[in-house]
Write a structure and sequence with these properties.
By secondary structure, the protein is of the alpha+beta class. The chain has 15 helices and 13 strands. Strands 1, 2, 3, 4, 5, 6, 7, 8, 9, 10, 11, 12 and 13 form a 13-stranded mixed beta sheet that branches.
Amino acid sequence: MFENLRLAFRGIWTHKLRSFLTMLGIIIGIAAIIAIVSTIEGTNQQIKENLIGSGSNAVDIAIFQGEWEYEFEWSGIPEGVSVISDETIKEIKDLKEVKNVSRYNKRNVFGNVFYKDKNLTTGFIKGVEPDYFETANFSALKGRLFTKDDEKKFRRVCVVDESIMEELFNNENPIGEIIEVDDTPYTIVGVVASRSTFEPVINTIEDYALYHQDDSGTIYIPHADWAISYCFDEPENIMVQAKSTDDMTAAGKKATDILNKKIHPEDETLEYKSKDLLEQAMKLQQLTKSTNSMLIWIAAISLLVGGIGVMNIMLVSVTERTSEIGLKKAIGARKSKVMWQFLTEAAVLTSLGGFLGVASGIGLARIISIVAGTPVAISWPAAIVAVIFSTVIGVVFGIIPSHQAANLNPIDALRSN
């Protein structure tokens, strides 16, 4: 085997230019496939990050009426939908895909939030449990978050996000300031921000709309205080934190199944639904893959051309080395030994082409990323498969030349000298 490898490398080195030109089809094909796959992987990662961010693994589950989230401010409390019990929360938390779960209420701001002479016209008000911020992967940027003591004593405190701090307070420290929510005063004790440092890549208007659809400011009040400004026994939504990003879909589905078994609404269009951003990402990724699969098949044609080139040059090599083959067979070399020598040479030739193609593909992907601004992610499994596939091409297209060499008549081969 090692002798065959030595002879293969010697033959390639002896005819360097011819060997390179023979490998060129393989190099171009592998490079094109690696560049396309890297672009697909990069785009898929961007889609996933644009939709679900980085590391929060939070799944928002809300009450929907048909295709739209139910609005309590307009429709009131629906019949047959009760508040979520502690037992139900425990049942959801015991799911193997779930790390944490927290209840919350939510309303849109419609000009009912004031700070001195300023009026907040857009945004959300949420009544949250103390563990909501941990579940949603938020932390205090300034001040503090809610405590269990705030809940027990019904303290009229609130936490705002950075958007509220900017709009109502011009980015000045709002800690200790009082805002009115539906004529109820709340003292600001903290400013909340996401722990994630992820910045989504926004290339189109669609990306902007997708990322900013829920980017309005939010005011958080304790869950226990919700009835002070709004309604008693108002059904809640929940925030579920999955144990991993890949568990988000399963966690959301299982949690909604549990919640929907607990309700019996008069309006049959009412049900809990998860805002499954991971599933949206997977659908967009599938669309991207199917769009680019044709490009991969086109690039694979050059591998076929490269394989034909390898077969052609190996047939030439057999013709050039007829006397060498005749001499080997005359001194006792078996057909299998001759055949394996030429198969090894063909495999080595295409394997080198595969390695050079992978390197070229990585370089090409980087250039595409710089020039077109397209995200790329090198897929090393794809690179390994590409090299293995190029070796297989050498073996397949080297069979005919190797078989021809192995079946040469040694007497006729020696006469050809």
